[in-house]
Design a protein that fits this description.
heterodimer; A: alpha/beta; Rossmann fold; five-stranded parallel beta sheet; two-stranded antiparallel ribbon; about 15% strand; B: alpha/beta; globular
Amino acid sequence: MIKFRLKSLERIDEPEDGQLPRKCSKLRVTLEKFNALIIEPDIDARMRIKQATLAVPKFGHLQSVNSISDAISQVEYLDNSVDIIFVSKRIPHEKMQGFFQFARASKKTEDAANVVLFQSQDEGNALIKTILELGADGILCEPYSVDQLSEIAELATFIKRERAKERERGAISLLIDDLAKQVDLVSVLSATGGELGQSRRVLLDLSRIAQGLSESGKEFYFERIIEKFSNLPPPPKAFQASSYNGASERVKRLLSKKRAQLMKGKNESTNS
Amino acid sequence: MKVLIVDDQEIDREVIKKMLSEYEVVEESNGTSAWRRLLEDPSIKLLVSDVLVPDMDGRELVHLLRSNEALCDLPVILISGGFSDGMIDFEDKVNPEKTKFLLKPLSKDELTKVIKELL
C-alpha cells in the first residue's frame, strides 16, 4: 500500500441550497512529492540510488551531483526546495559536516533531511553514531528497497515539521524579549506621568502578534513567558523613575483592601 | 563635543553624521538603547533624533529626558517628516528652549544654525 500525505483538499463546485447541483462536487487531492538531491562521486552507486528513488512514487524531482562543491553551486539555482539530501559515505567527514551546516543555512535546503548512503548494513551500523554527530538525520544502506525509501520519506516529513517548529519557537522567544522591553518602557513613561504614544502602539502591535500565534505556538509562548517574566530582574536603571516616592494612593488603597480581605478570611477560618 | 544620533535608518544616520563631522558622534537605532546610552554616558551634550523611532516617539523621548534630573537640560533636536509622523503640533512644555524641530529633508546650514542656538 502506498501511503501519501494530503497537501490540499479543494472543492470545485459548491451545490446551491435547495437545488440539484449543476455539476458533481469533486474533491481534488494533491499528492506531495519529495524532492531529493544526491551527492555521490561513484557513477554506479549514483545510478543505483537514482533508480531506487525513481521506483518510489513519493519522490518527485531528483538532482544528482558527484561532489560537495557541485552540490553547493546547484543549491543556489534550485527552482524547488529540497526535502531529502542523500550524501555518499565516500565524502570525507569534514566536507560532509560542512555541507550539512551549509544546507541548514540555505533557504532551499534548510528543512531537508540529511541521509548518508552506505554500501552495507554492517558498515552503516558501525558508523551511525559518528554520522549523526556530523549532523546527519539518518542512514540508508544498500540494497535499497521501496520500504526503506518510504521510511526515509517519513523521516523527511518529521524533520520538516520539527525544524519549522524550532523556527517558530525562536521567533516567539524574540517576541517575548521585545514585549518585556516594551512593557518596561510603557511602565516608566506611565509612572513618570508621560503621555503614551508610539510606545503604546508598539506594545499593542506586539500583543496582537502574540494573539495570532498558532495553538502550539501559544502553548510554547505561555511556557516561556511565565518562565521569563518570573526570572526577570527589576527594570534596568534606565527605566527607573528618578524619584520614587513609594506606592501611589490607588495602589495603597488596593493593597489595604486585599489585606483586609485576607484578614477576614483568616478570622473566619479560625472561628469555624 | 559628543552628539548622539538616533534613527532606525542607517542611511539617515550616515547623512547626519557627515553633517556633524566636526563633532564626535555616537549612534543608536531605537529610543530604548538611546535612553540607556544617555544615562550611561554623561559626556553626550546633544541629542539629534528622528521623531519616530521603532519603540517610541519624540514626545515620549523628550518626556523621559525632562523627567530625569541628570538629563532635563539636555539640548534636543527632533527631526520630523512633517504631518506624516503626527508630531507637527508637539511642544516641549518643560524646557521649550532646549528642544528644536527640524523638518526633513535636512540641510547642513539649518542644522548648524540650530546647534549654535541651543548651545
